[in-house]
Design brief:
The chain has two domains: 151 residues, Alpha/beta knot; 51 residues, Trp Operon Repressor, Chain A, CATH 1.10.1270. Helices cover 32% and strands 18% of the residues. It has eight helices and nine strands. A hairpin with a 2-residue loop joins strand 8 and strand 9. The longest helix is centred in the last third of the chain and has 19 residues. The structure holds adenine.
Length: 223
């Protein structure tokens, strides 16, 4: 899969895109990540990418032309399955959306900023609008990182058996069971006996019981 992120702050992505699972996904050839600075597509001599809103109102609005030119440039090179716009008024992101996006070959993620982007960008180019929750971030960059990370980990082959995404919370509609490692006794706080029993059936029964218990207590809406 190839993901092109359009942003005014490409440097924000450097750390996140070059570490951990995203680094591994790229090294294994499962994922290609590119960032594009929208400002590079400004034809204005001061490289402006925003302007005052018609009709007045607070804040600046990202202009249609630099974004359109950047998207058209990318589209002239390959087909894109989706142009995603990160915005607080989009559809709320969840595991099933991440799974669905992981099936795409190429996608563009456009990060919003300021008071918003010119509505014509949304009308003419955007195919999906995604929010990562009911709160307002300063920009769409952190949302784009969350989406890329959640999508990358479910691309087949990115995770190995040990880190399999199948045991992630939400993947089976339930939260994950608690996990423990050595020492078995930390200052009198002991790991549940069943996990030390070696009995796979009992361990699996215990895990499912804990998953149900946790989901019922914390996220009854999922049941
Ligand atoms: N941009 C600002 N807030 C956002 C949110 N909650 N989700 C996605 N993009 C955003």
């Amino acid at each position: 899969m190839r993901i092109d992120v359009l942003t005014l702050f490409p440097e924000m992505f450097e750390g996140v895109f070059s570490q951990s699972i995203l680094k591994r996904a790229q090294n294994k050839g499962h994922l290609e990540l590119f960032t594009h600075n929208i400002r590079d597509y400004s034809k204005d001599k001061h490289h402006r990418v925003d302007d005052y809103p018609f009709g007045g109102g607070p804040g600046m609005v990202m202009m249609v032309e630099p974004i359109a030119d950047c998207i058209n440039d990318l589209k002239s090179q390959r087909h894109y399955d989706a142009v995603i716009f990160t915005a607080p008024d989009g559809q709320t992101f969840n595991q099933s959306k991440a799974n669905q996006l992981s099936l795409y070959q190429n996608m563009i993620i456009l990060c919003g900023h300021y008071k918003g982007v010119d509505e014509r960008v949304r009308e003419l180019f955007v195919t999906e609008e995604i929010s990562i929750g009911d709160y307002v971030l300063s920009g769409g960059e952190i949302a784009a990182m969350a989406i890329v990370d959640a999508v990358a980990r479910v691309i087949p082959g990115v995770l190995n058996d040990e880190t399999s995404a199948l045991s992630d919370s939400f993947q089976d509609g339930l939260l994950s069971a608690p996990v423990y490692t050595r020492p078995a006794n930390y200052q009198g706080h002991c790991v549940p006996d069943v996990l030390l029993s070696g009995n796979e059936r009992l361990i699996n029964d215990w895990k499912l019981e804990k998953q149900l218990e946790r989901t019922k207590a914390r996220r009854p809406d999922l049941l």
